[in-house]
Amino acid sequence: MRIFIILLFLIIFSSSYANSSTQLAEVAIIPKPFSVVSGKGSFALTDKSKICAVSHNIEVNKIGSLLRNKLRPATGFMLPLIETADQKGTGNIYLVLSQSSISALGDEGYQLTITPDRIEVLANKSAGLFNGIQTLRQLFSDKIEALTHQSDSWIIPAGVIRDFPEYAYRGFMLDVARHFFSVADVKHYIDLASMYKMNVFHIHLSDDQGWRIEIKKWPELTATGSKSQVGGGKAGFYTQEQFRDIVQYAASRNITVIPEIDLPGHTTAMLASYAQLNCDNKARDLYTGTEVGFSTVCTSKESTYSFIEDVLKEISAMTPGAYLHIGGDESHVTKIEDYIPFVNRMQVIVAKLGKHVIGWDEIALSDLKPNSFVQYWGKAENAVLGVQKGAKVIMSPAMYAYLDMKYDSLTTFGLNWAGYLDVQKSYDWIPESIVPGIKRENILGVEAPIWTESISTMKNIEYMAFPRIIGIAEVGWCSSSRRTWSEYKLRLAKQGDRLKVLGVNYYPSKQIAW
Ligand code: ACM
User: Fold this and answer.
1) So where are the chain's domains?
2) Which of 182, 434, 458, 508 has the most CB atoms at less than 10 Å from its CB?
3) What is the average per-residue pLDDT within 65-85?
């Protein structure tokens, strides 16, 4: 009998212990944090827990309500958000903004301290608090992501996470020109990318196949230019109000929107909308194919520049970020002697608007202004030239970072001109060592573009982006010396169930033991 009681005790003890025996350092977090130190015991979120904004600051309150909105549905807890100066209560989550906390955390870093009594997220800036709560989400069981009440316990092992990014620019791009995506789709994609601490959303707003943003001074851009997309069908555009809404939605998730108007090539939708943008004054037909490199605005007309200035002025006014992307890629029918002065003028116009230029790597052929950025996608020698001219580079090498590349020969949509891009390949590259002549200090960050010639639904965007975008997020966040594929793939495997709860249509790559 005594043995039986002891055994029973052991069974009960060991099962409850098993429940909370995971050490903090064993929890799979992506992107991998800078440091994780396990503590003793665990924290339990309960129906008595509160979210406490310790700093009197509207940004902290916004992050607090974002956290509450994420945790409330699955837990069923009210999690009231309160402003408080004291941190004496137990069972609560404290959000603390302190300019003088820990300088190593920088603008986007955070310290997450979990004890059996409380959780504290500490940061210098609200961006750090946002990143801290993304990590916090991953510490709860996958069911935390559910939109309906789940019966689970919400226990997190104790310890301290100190974390900050390697690169300041961690971007993802969506081509809404080849196929149009609704505001709801765009927000959904932004929300998913923000989970992994991406902080730049580059939106490719114009191309041969469509113009996607309302410009009040030049209404035909949308009245005509938005009516096409690849393969025909119903296309569309964002009103200025909708675009501002996207910008604000992204900002609340620590994401800066970078709008791109692709110039001087990739411009058939503009050339169809306004005849005067063509050197022969003849409007082009709308285009629904997938060729590239056959269009150019007329670079020799002064009116072209005032038109573009009008457009960029309205777009600049809608985007608080420091950058405007002017494209500049694949302008094969613009003579090089016209292309260079054109890109030079674009830089003057953008500087007048108080912004910096980003352009695809071809813009390195122009006279780069200080603070113009080169986005490496195709030609390494262009990117090196940009560096030699003093520019910093955004790394989007097509063969590693283009998420519209097929995973393998069996992928039913996507392209393969840069090769197949499996999950390992998209993770297992080092931004500072893939191009000789481009070093760590020359790199602003990384970006994962997704082009949509062959992709027309958000479910298919999810399939191409996930899980590769998660890997690119880690490439941007975590220094290359601290990451390996063999260790990463184990952490990625554990994201599968979380993505399932979120309803994300990820590609179940055989490289991962999901
Ligand atoms: C590009 O892929 N043409 C930038």
Assistant:
1) 20-163, 169-485
2) 458
3) 97
